[in-house]
What we know:
By secondary structure, the chain is mainly β. It is built from one helix and 14 strands, in the order αββββββββββββββ.
Amino acid sequence: MKVSCALVWAAAIWAVSATSGFAAKETPVTTSGLPIPRYVSLKSDHVNVRAGPTRENELSWIFTRSGLPVEITAEFENWRRIRDSEGAEGWVYHSLLSGRRTAVVTMKDKDALAPIYDRADATGNVAARLQAGVVAQVKRCLNGWCRVIGTGFDGWIEQQRLWGVYADEKLD
Length: 172
């Protein structure tokens, strides 16, 4: 019986960590090698969402707007399980997703407007006001603020007002 060196090393590392009380941070091993969960956006304005990770699975719905943010919650080969801002989940083929970061403006009161400031500070000048549901490209996030751009606006918004970035996530 032939055993690869990598397998022996993996077993040895596991044995040492299991007996020493060392607990490594659990990071799911993914097909892509990228962390889960993570946010991405839709690359196309026609994205089929399926009940499972094959083309043979039932079509659940179709996204018809490119640029929408989604959260990848699992991977299986070339398929990604995603969740949208409303909590709906399904599987999409990986090539229909983009690493470009976008976010949806969220407000507790759907009729309220989210201020966009000229700097990352609530004492700055209000450059625009956005309705809940507006999708923006996220350029940078730091210290609870994100710089977002879109048609007719470019400025800073409180990070907590966005679905598509994690709390305290830093983006450059």
